Amino acid sequence: MKIVVLGGAGKMGVLAVEDLVLNERVDEVVLADRELDMANAIAAHLDSRKLSVKQIDLNDHQALVGLLLDADACVNATVYYTNLKVMAACLEARTHYTDLGGLFHGTREQLKLHDQFLEAGVSAVLGMGSAPGAPNILARYAADRLDTIDAIRIYDGVKPPPADNMKFTYAVPTIIDELTLSPMVYRHGEFIAREPLSELEPYPFTPPLGTLPMHLSLHSEVATLPVSFKDKGIQECFFKINYWGMAKETVDKVRVLADFGFDSKELVTITTGNGRVEVSPREFMIAMMGDFVPSSLDFLTAPENEPGDWAKEIVSEVRGTAGDQPVVYRMALLTRKGALPTGVLPARGAVWQAAGRVEPGVHPPELAFDPQPFLKELEERGILTSVTVTRGL
After folding, report:
1. Model confidence at 302, in pLDDT bands (50, 70, 90)?
2. Residue 39 has pLDDT above 80, yes or no
3. pLDDT for the residue 277
4. Is the pLDDT score of 338 beyond 60?
């Protein structure tokens, strides 16, 4: 079994590469990235005969297709803007595809490729990671046991860093989009846009993570779960997180920059001593933030937290009925190393796809995988699932 990880030298991709290298079912892993220095450093650290490094430019379609032709599956761990481009290459190469999410609107566009993937006889799974990914599969577990569903409420709780921690937890462009674009929620049969960071509420997570302030964020789960479980009468679905795993003070600073227009993609003409130049405020801001992004090697070598001090808990709270009884399922994924599921879930998903365990076509995670065996497999990496069921009298 051969699997290619695009963006394998990135902060989430590196965790997928690590998991695939450790997986006995995988014979060959290709770490494909445009940044060769970091890719080679990661390969040296992992020190595995099954791992090779390839430099790739996603703008070179033919080179990308050539890279994928003899691969059984592709994990696209690059920024979500590339999803459609990589899916087109996977279609041509007839290679199974998975990614880390399309931030709602991108996911809805990707789903339109279902018939093309079905005809090609290959599968695509959209949004596999800690979130989206885990919440979808957790919700499916509960949905299989309910006759009707009233609400699916997703809470992604991350251990807050110190107030003076000026670090970004994953791709800066994606964080900026989640921070500035309108979150989508599903209520009473329709999708509704809300304000970024709105509908703040305290939510109790497993101790010692404790109660955290949760707010809305644009996310892919909301794009698919209401459609997947429409027949069960779902009326509400939303995704909330606590400042994307960053210090609130860091989020506030980025929001100030956005208020001044630094999130704009429109070119601005600037006069300098060397003449006039055009720059995008957004790209300039992202470049300046580069020094505040941990290296990919940090994600591999950072020590885990103390036992019991959970770094991350993802909850899918599914409310509905079984028979005539109201029932609430609280499905939770727990991990000490907060970023780990974002790499492990797409890696395991790609292995299932390569093994023919996912039907051809384009699918959200909740329809692609059998929840119980998939969640059980994650325990090998210390990613644990808990189920709490509350029934009415």
Report:
1. low
2. yes
3. 84
4. yes
Q: What phi, psi does 240 have (nearest 5°)?
A: -130, 150
Q: Which residue has the higher pLDDT, 56 or 300?
A: 56
**Calpha distance 59→41 (Å, rounded):** 24
Q: Tell me the C-alpha distance between 269 and 285, whole Å.
A: 16
Answer yes or no: do 206 and 275 share one domain: yes
What are the tokens at 389? 């069921």
Residue 298: its pLDDT value, please?
78
Average pLDDT of 37-62?
A: 96
pLDDT on residue 241 = 97
**Same domain? 174 vs 68:** no
Asked if 353 and 310 sit in the same domain, the reply is no
